[in-house]
Design a protein that fits this description.
The chain is mainly β and 586 residues long. The chain has two helices and 47 strands. The strands form eight sheets. Strands 3, 4, 5, 7, 8, 10, 11, 12, 13, 14, 15, 16, 17 and 18 form a 14-stranded parallel β-sheet that branches.
């Protein structure tokens, strides 16, 4: 609406503009503060006998353990511990979230272990497929240290480890993780056989190990910046961060969701010197999504002004979920999975302040979707520096479970968005008939068009063109992990331009003048045709404002080659899985 006042004989006055939203609801219809979370959420109380809890944990682990059968099943589970102390050992399988229900990690103590290892004989001591599991918001008193030997999509957040943290399997076999944030480790955190790792806003007693790419930001006790020998990249602070929303129980036994405050130049866990700063909302403002919900019921809740608490399960969507209200919270536990059907896009977020997306798996449907998640429409221009949208522990899968297809997994058009730990994965293995060059098709994992977007923990793998395209100004990435597509049939099928072999994994748009990135690794394993080559892994404009620090390429087992690391700089990959490193560009 525009109002213009003009005095006779004068020129037009200035125009005053205001924007109004017409037709919004008065607020979310009141939900229960002690909701029914459905059958896949298991809540434990310290009054329960330890043997009873242990038996239930073991039964759930047995169902979720096996890499050959559970990795692409539809089982989902959350294990939630009310405040108190427990004497249990929790082995964590696929699609399992373990979390404390205290307001701070010390409110729930596990006298035992919360463990991920190379559990199965079929793993042969290798933890590189230990995906889709998480631990959050509790303290652990582990005898002999706590083992968390994981690969992608397995966050370890808000944990107080009273002792050592072992990020490698007991066999010392390979692992391909990983991500720690907002965590304290009183002893030593050791990566040993981990190929890459990112630790954000944490406190470590010490650190040991590093294979190719170990990155730290805002972490006390982190090693010095010594890339590439040893391969440690360390930033004193994280420029902007906001820790994840999480469920807790208040003193009256009612459930609430805590919303941590935005931090700038952060260092150390948000709760290291007391409670995490922030606010909380009652569960009465959250619609609990569980078995039987559809896209229509979920969109209805969103349109009424509700936040969403998404419980473990697989939800098929025949229409896009539209998030239009500022400060909407979408919080998932137990790897709830959205599957868009009939080619719809899964989720669309408006260009508004403060949306928080956490703990979701979006699995592409068998009819191609243009995008799985879009934040802001094309051309978004509003500034959200004081209250950005955050995308945290949101994972994308193309194929593996089903023969999924999606042109792009994540498009970020809104300015100031924080991408904090995602894994966008075009599957290189899975159920029969779900993987192949012409089967699970996907061009690009992430496209960033918004300005001042920050990525902390960006894992993007196996897409068929550029894995990441960054067109927005003033972008920043701290830690990038990538594998190029394994299954390129021949060189002619994989050319980004005439005479240019392959596609750069991370491409900064030609018109970008300011961009900075730290700790980036891209690997090739062209096992279908080892003659395939990529000219470079990183493609950027040659301008002083575009800066890359500590980038590397690796040919795994000499299966194919990458000629340069970034643009025309960096040596061709060696055949013996030795990295080619570039410390600074330009």
């Amino acid at each position: 609406m525009k109002a213009i006042a003009i005095k006779s004989g004068l020129t037009n006055s200035a125009v005053a503009s205001a924007t109004y939203t017409i037709g919004t609801s008065a607020g979310c219809p009141t939900q229960s503060d002690i909701p029914n979370f459905g059958p896949n959420v298991h809540i434990y109380d310290p009054s329960m006998p330890s043997a009873t809890i242990q038996a239930q944990l073991d039964a759930q682990f047995t169902q979720m353990k096996d890499t050959t059968t559970a990795q692409f099943s539809e089982n989902r589970v959350a294990q939630l511990f009310k405040p108190g102390t427990y004497a249990v050992d929790d082995n964590v399988g696929f699609y399992t979230s373990v979390a404390g229900l205290g307001q701070n990690p010390g409110d729930v103590t596990i006298n035992g272990h919360v463990t991920v290892d190379a559990f199965n004989a079929s793993d042969a001591g290798n933890a590189t497929q230990n995906f889709w599991r998480s631990a959050e918001n509790l303290a652990i008193n582990p005898v002999g240290g706590n083992r968390w030997a994981v690969a992608q999509a397995a966050p370890f957040r808000r944990i107080d480890v009273h002792g050592d943290l072992q990020l490698y399997p007991a066999s010392y076999g390979w692992a391909s993780g990983g991500y720690v944030a907002d965590t304290k480790v009183s002893g030593q955190a050791a990566s040993i056989s981990q190929q890459q790792w990112y630790t954000r806003d944490s406190n470590l007693g010490s650190w040991a190990g590093g294979v190719w790419n170990m990155v730290f930001s805002g972490t006390t006790g982190a090693p010095a910046n010594t890339f590439p020998d040893p391969p440690e990249t360390t930033l004193a602070t994280t420029p902007v961060s906001r820790d994840v929303p999480y469920l807790y129980v208040d003193g009256a036994g009612k459930y609430r969701v805590f919303l941590p405050s935005l931090r700038t130049n952060a260092s150390g866990a948000s709760w290291a010197n007391g409670s995490t700063a922030g606010t909380s909302q009652p569960m009465s403002q959250f619609y609990v999504v569980k078995a039987g919900d559809t896209a229509a019921t979920i969109n209805n809740a969103l349109s009424q002004g509700c936040n969403l608490f998404v419980t473990p399960g697989v939800y098929h969507l025949n229409q896009t979920l539209n998030i239009t209200r500022a400060n909407t919270v979408i919080l998932g536990i137990g790897y709830p999975t959205f599957v868009p059907d009939n080619g719809v896009n899964a989720i669309q977020v408006a260009d508004v302040d403060g949306v928080r997306l956490k703990g979701l798996l979006i699995d592409a449907g068998t009819t191609n979707s243009a995008a799985l998640l879009t934040v802001g429409p094309a051309g978004s221009s509003a500034t959200h520096a004081g209250n950005p949208t955050t995308i945290q522990d949101v994972f994308f899968r193309i194929g593996g479970q089903i023969a999924g297809k999606a042109t792009t997994s994540l498009i970020v058009n809104s300015n100031n968005t924080i991408i904090d730990h995602i894994w966008a994965w075009r599957a290189d293995h899975g159920n029969p008939g779900t993987v192949g060059w012409t089967t699970n098709t996907a061009d690009t994992g992430v496209i960033v068009n918004g300005s001042s977007v920050l990525a902390t923990g960006l894992f993007v793998e196996h897409y068929q063109k550029h894995e990441v395209v960054w067109n927005g100004q003033n972008g920043k990435t701290i830690f990038f992990q990538n594998e190029m597509p394994y299954d390129v049939p021949n060189q002619a099928a994989w050319m980004s331009a005439a005479g240019v072999n392959g596609y750069a994994a991370y491409k900064v748009g030609a018109g970008v003048t300011t961009h900075e990135a730290w700790g980036l690794g891209s690997y090739c394993y062209f096992n279908v045709n080892p003659a395939v080559n990529s000219y470079h892994a990183f493609e950027v404009p040659n301008t002083p404002g575009v800066k890359f620090h500590d980038a590397l390429t690796v040919s795994l087992g000499g299966m194919g080659t990458i000629t340069h690391v970034i643009n025309d700089t960096g040596a061709v990959t060696a055949s013996n899985t030795t990295p080619s490193n570039v410390v600074a560009y330009p």
